[in-house]
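Notes to self after the call with IL:
- keep both proteins in one doc
- input above output, always
- annotate only the second one for now

Protein 1:
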Amino acid sequence: MRILFIIGQVALGGIETYSLRMCRELHRRGHKLDIWFVKPGGDPALLREFERVAEVRFLSRWLPVPFLPFAPAVPADCDLVFTTGRLSLIFGALALRSPHCPPLVAGVFSQWEYSGVADDYKSRLSHQILDQIGLGNVVFCTEGCRVFHAPTLGPDIASSIVSPLLIQLPDHAPERRPARPEGTPLRIVSIGSFTPFKTYNFTLPSTIADLRASGIPVEWTIYGDGVEAPRIQQAIAQAGVGDCIHLAGKLDYARFAEVVGRADLYIGAGTTLIEASALGVPSLVALDDNPEPTTPGFFADRTGTFTSDWADDDHPIPFKDAIAAFADLSEEARQSLADRSMARAQSYSIDGAEREIQRMIANAKPSCARLGILDRVQYSLGVVREVARVAMGKGAYRVR
């Protein structure tokens, strides 16, 4: 098979690391991979990893996004075009050329990606493309993400599929951790981009302060960067916990296992919950866009394909209570939770990458989605407006 992945940018996030893991496994199995990044620049280390397993191309070398709505043709022997967001879906459609039109698939990794009102150029054009390719060509990363989109996309959403966020499981079972000496801080780690919907970054500092006031020593190390960094710094300062919460900057993805493996507890969202659990690190779920410092519990106890998206049967409890209860566990109980965490992660093995790609191809239909002249003009005008928004400090158009 030959698969084309179209990705927004070379950034250390869940979409990019998922795509890299898929490409590595498919490359290992002898398949040919192409990666197109819509935006220029990005993380050099991550780019090198992509270049080891795929032919890499940038659709824009200098501008933040391509100004002209044109794309090179999809390779003639391509079996699937997998896109990872609104902008990449637009360029996937622009790359299709009759008569060779392999299935164009819209991968959905955010519960807000296509669920909102189409009031900017990326949303309007991407919804237009979805109408053309059909919802059988839509792939959700979790069941919760699909449920969230149902009111907007309608009953035909049942024809879409859910393909789980596959990870590379450790080659060997992690060694049993030694008992934590009494009185030493509980080591908590989080990894993720600083975006508005990852609200635990803003609400947890006060929880850490409350835990410390109740006599539970805690150290929380946060890896990541993004537009919300100042807000996180402000929350830490207001809670007076700058001595026990550390903003450690971006993490080289190759060091994920090393860094997380030393933690007593992981708190986070999305794929990182699965990866941390696979290392035997109990992982508390931080729900997306949750205004309260609460959690539905450990990923080990999640059902189906739900990660940090809301499930109907969620009954969140305060993070303070969950962390305090964890700190009070015996070593035997803590090891049992670690074992359950590793067992829960087994169903997400990257060994299923080829199977999942074949499911996507079988479920999707070939479609030469078209964007006409007026659509292309709308695109370029939208880019100009977006650049102006950024220049005025209003930020780019975002789904959330």
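Protein 2 (the one to annotate):
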Amino acid sequence: MPCGTVVDYRSPEGRLQSHADLWLTPLTGVDLAAYGGAWSDVLDQADRVLE
């Protein structure tokens, strides 16, 4: 592995949830629970908020 490579063994869902908890929800106010767990809808709404 090249120097500087980061290996993250969490599931894709775990990584998304971590990013949402740490910065996406605090920054945009968009909460996954409000969108029934549909990440595509959450990310679309977060994009609208940040525009």
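Annotation: The chain has a mean pLDDT of 92. The two ends are 37 Å apart (CA to CA).
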